[in-house]
Description:
4-stranded antiparallel beta sheet
Amino acid sequence: MILAALSPTVRAGQNVTLSWNRSADPIVAGYNVYYGRASGTCTNELFAGTATNAIISGLIPGITYYFAATAYSSSDLESQLSGRALYTVPILPGIQISITPTRQFILTENGPVGHTYDIQATQDFITWTVIGTVMVGTNGSLSFIDTNAASFSKRFYRTRG
């Protein structure tokens, strides 16, 4: 039994759709999909039946998943795993702002580990100034303290990167 390589397609949210070519082998009765967080370690199994695609949901943002599939016969013979496909679930960015008693603003944002962002500020939404550059840590978030926030009557923030 031969199974073509998997192809991941990103869908909205923490889902991924996997698809593969139907096996030409006449003894193939269906397919199974295996996935996990480490290459070569499939901790989850999904029975796909005769479908040539599967939606995997409930994936955790920032985590890389490895996927493989098998074909099986009506007598429960299962092929070797297909070639592996991998997918890293994106972390959706969004700035969270908190303020200290001394009017320093603390900006927190999630992002891909190791990614660098410029922190920009404006008072008029026309002229933006880079007030700092921060790299996302191994926990998937960054933190920036605007120590000059108290000097402005109003200030707006965004990240670029």
